[in-house]
Design brief:
With 215 residues, the chain is of the alpha/beta class. The chain has a single domain, classed as Rossmann fold. It is built from six helices and eight strands; from the N terminus they run αβαβαβαβαβαβββ.
Length: 215
């Protein structure tokens, strides 16, 4: 019997997810759940790309995880002279330790093109959180879309013109166009945001009110 195209696409994605998780276990020793919604973030580690933004409101993240399990896979490298980028990677490892037993967070070492291919085809949602209007393009999100992976992205770079809401994914903030006519700021510290992913240049000053530990 001929298989429906949607069913074939879903099975192809599930197979890509299996291959990604096998690689994650090989590289980190962490075994991820094939049936859990998996977010992916992989690109150069630098302040304006805000890889840590997901962890800005830990209590909110935990409330989301209580409604439906999520797990996150990170990868990337910082420029040798980008100290802030290196600190961002260290911070992700720290959040992974704090959230253990609640939200599975892994960081894949040795980021390269082969790792990127596994990620853009194997995760369920591609996360993109740059500080507008600094994202020039965002080719990793294009590759994810070509592999049938949904994008959850700030409206910047290619996503402004490329997204079809309800089809490839949606914006992570309001529909306001990226103000590219403005002078581009140069962030000197890893920027964060408040609320619904709107840009801010300060670090979070609050600490999680919930005590984290194994469930």
């Amino acid at each position: 019997m001929r298989q429906h195209p949607r069913a074939r696409a879903l099975e192809a994605h599930r197979e890509a997810k299996r291959k990604l998780f096998a690689y994650v276990k090989q590289a980190t020793g962490v075994e991820m759940d094939l049936n859990v919604l998996t977010l992916g973030f992989a690109r150069r580690a630098t302040a304006y790309k805000r890889p840590h933004l997901l962890f800005h409101d830990i209590d909110r993240l935990l409330r989301i995880a209580e409604k439906g399990k999520i797990q996150v896979i990170y990868a990337g490298k910082a420029h040798p002279h980008d100290d802030n980028g290196k600190k961002l990677i260290q911070g992700i490892y720290g959040y992974g330790d704090k959230l253990k037993g609640w939200v599975q967070v892994v960081f894949l070492p040795g980021y390269n093109m082969d790792t990127a291919l596994k990620l853009v085809s194997g995760v369920d949602i591609w996360l993109n959180t740059p500080l507008r209007p600094l994202e020039a393009s965002g080719t990793s999100g294009m590759k994810a879309a070509h592999n049938g992976v949904l994008n959850f992205s700030v409206l910047d770079g290619w996503w402004i013109e490329g997204h079809i809401e309800g089809s490839q994914g949606g914006p992570s903030e309001g529909r306001q166009r990226s103000p590219r006519h403005r002078a581009k700021p140069t962030p000197t510290t890893p920027p964060t945001c408040t609320g619904n992913l709107r840009a801010s240049s300060s670090r979070p000053t609050t600490t999680p009110t919930r005590t984290l530990g194994p469930r």
